[in-house]
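User: structure tokens for this one?
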Amino acid sequence: MTKHLSQILQDNFNISKEALDDAQRIKIEKGEKAGEILLRKKIITESQLLEALSIQYNIPFQPDLPMENIGQDITGQIPIQFLKKHLMVPLSANVGLSCSEDDTNPDDTKDINTNLSKHSFIIAINDPTSFQALDDLVRILGLCDFEIVLSTKQAILSAINIAYDLSRDSAEQLVQDMEENGSSIISEIEDT
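Assistant:
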């Protein structure tokens, strides 16, 4: 049976029962998430919250994302605002795999570097309860083989920004190449 978040925080991070009870009271009054309340009050760090959620949901926690696996190919399919709003980013791995070609068990390991070789995508998320946004992302990308990891807001936002910056740079380079090649083609035509 899955442990409740407050129990995990108390057992693993020595958060006092009083602090947890206070967060629970505010949660009921204002409808906020208990973890966010504890973060705002600086009772726990984001990493501690994500580690606790990792235990609760059995999703690996990866504080640092491998930047070499940031896929520029997603930038044309998913608006940057969607990824930033929902704090999630897909990291490409073996993009050529299809569902029928991969017979690995997603529970084989919880190490992201190993999983990158077993799954076509790793999706880093900050909130394991954002099922609808995750489903939308998977549907838009047409994914059938992916692993989910929890990561910090900063790591996810950095990965998103890098992917879209690289994509923009690639587009600018393409336009520049077209302009240069266009001039040389016109020169060749004029010479003949």
